[in-house]
Amino acid sequence: MKEARVVDIGDGRIFAGYQDKLIHIYKQAFGEPPWNEIFTNNEVKDWFAEMMSCSGKIVLALCVEYELIGGTFCVNADLKHDVWQYLPTSVKKQEVIYLAESFINPAYQRKGLGKILHDRRLEIARKQGYKYALQRTNEQSGMYALIQRTCFKEIGRQIVISCKTINGVIKEYPDERVISLKKL
What we know:
Layout: E1 4-8, H1 12-16, H2 19-31, H3 41-52, E2 58-64, E3 67-76, H4 81-84, E4 96-104, H5 113-127, E5 132-138, H6 142-149, E6 153-166, E7 169-183
Helix pairs in contact: 2-3
């Protein structure tokens, strides 16, 4: 495997140069099992715009050589009302970074590259003064295995309704997500 590098693209002007390719990768990654989700370019663009508008965000791109292969968005957990309700009462939501999205081109998945991106976002979160990291993911995803290996503790489960394609049929399906927390 060629050398991977993580690039901070949290500045809007820098992000703009990566956005179209990230939209494509996002749709590829979440179009695969276990997600099987369908998004239009505009839906992803709107989601990215929401993440980019947050203060205290962490936005990173993952590149191998000169090829963009993935990205991640992290925001203050205070902005994710449906998730921070699971936090223990002793944890202040302002001290928690929510690891909102991570996505890697399927051709590069399961090669240790997600861990490089994951470790870098946790390192930046610590430097920004966050004391905890919060993650929500599907138990069947590669991210779930990674957060288990990196000492996250499950604090709850949540049903999310997603538009999916299963056996060629597009409809809304319930999807159980595991919510996990780690002290940084």
